[in-house]
Amino acid sequence: MLCSHMSSYLNENRCLFGVCICPKTYYISQHSNIIHNGSLTLPMIGAILYDLPSLRYVYCFIFICLALIGLINNIFSIMTFIRERIQYTICGVYLIFYSLFSLLLMILIMTNVIIAVYYDKYIFRLWACYGYPYLSTVTVYISMLISSIIVIEHVCHLYFNFDPFRSRKQPVQITLLFLLLISISNLDKIFGRTLSIDEVGYYSCSYKDFSYKYWSNILYYIYIIIPCFIHFTCLICILLILIKRHPLRKIILYQSYFTPSVFIIFCMTLNGLYLYLFDFHLTYSSGYLIRLHIGFIFLLYTPQIFTYMIYVMPNNDYVKEFYQIWFYRKLCCCFYDKKRHRIDFEILNILCTVSPLSESIKTV
C-alpha cells in the first residue's frame, strides 16, 4: 500500500518524491482485523520504494528507458501497419489495434513516475487507486487476446489458404467485443478498491483481495493462460506445416509466423511460474525477492514494449513497408547527404594533395 504523507512511525528511508511505504501496523484497519498486505496501488513503484535507497534512481532510469523504448517501438509499428499494403489485410487491422493498445500501455507506465512525484494531489491519488490498475490490466489482457487471434489467422492462412484481404469489419468488431468483455469483467479493479482517509489525515488505497481473489484468478486464466495455450498450439501447427513443406534450413525464412508466439509464450510462462511458485508480500520480502518481483512485473509488459521487434522485424514485407515511410526516408536522406559530403570532401582533399605533387614532377 502506498501512503501520501509521512509520519513518525513510517520506516526510515522508505520515501521517494513524497510517496511513502507504510509499515505493517498501518495496514491494519482500526475498525477491523483485516490486513491489506496485497493492496498495492502501484506494485512497481511500491517495490522500488521498499528496496535499497541507493537503487531507487537506477530503477527509475531503467523504468523510463524501457517505457521510451516501448513508445518508439509502437510508434514505428503503427507507422508501418497503416501502410496501404498492410492495413487492408486482416492481420494488419489486428496489428494496428495491438500497437495502439500497446502505445496506451506505455503511456500508462510513464504515468507511474508522474504519480510518484505528485502523489500528494488528490486527483493523482484517485488515478493511482482506480484508473491506472484498471486501464493497465485492460490493455495487457486485450493485447494478449489480439495476439492470439493474429496467430490463429496465420494458421488459417497456411492450412486453409484463407484470404488475408477479407472484409476489415470482422477484426474491428472482434476487437471491440474483446474490449467490451474485458472492460466489464475487470470492473473489480475499480469497485474492489477503496481510497480512504483516517482521522489523522493519511490516505490509503486498499484492494479487497479476499473478496475478488478467485475472480481475479479466473480472469488471469481466461486472458493470459488460454491465449498462451492458443499460441503454443498454433506454434506447433505452424512448425509442422513448415517442416512438411520446406527444408529445415529454409524455415527461418518464415520466422514471422512463429517469432511473436515464441516470445509471448516465453514471457508469460516465466510470469506464470513466478506467480505460482512465489507468494510475494512486499512488507516481508527480502531485497532479492523485491527485485525479482519488479523484473517479473515487466514480463507482462515486455511483448507490448517490443512490438516492432517481434512483429515487424521478422517479416521482410513489413520491413520493406517500413523503409517506405516518410520518417525512414527522411532519415536515410540525411545520412546519405552527410556521407556524400564526406566523400566529396575526401576526394577534394586527395586532389589537392595530388595536384602539388604533379606540378613538382612537371618542373623536374
TrEMBL record:
SUPFAM superfamilies: Family A G protein-coupled receptor-like. The chain crosses the membrane at residues 56-82, 94-119, 139-160, 218-242, 254-276, 288-311. Residues 73-311 form the G-protein coupled receptors family 1 profile domain. Gene3D superfamilies: Rhodopsin 7-helix transmembrane proteins. InterPro entries: GPCR_Rhodpsn_7TM. Keywords: Membrane, Transmembrane, Transmembrane helix. It comes from the Eukaryota. Its main location: membrane. One of its GO terms (cellular component) is membrane. It is found in: Membrane. This is G-protein coupled receptors family 1 profile domain-containing protein. The lineage of its organism: Eukaryota, Metazoa, Spiralia, Gnathifera, Rotifera.
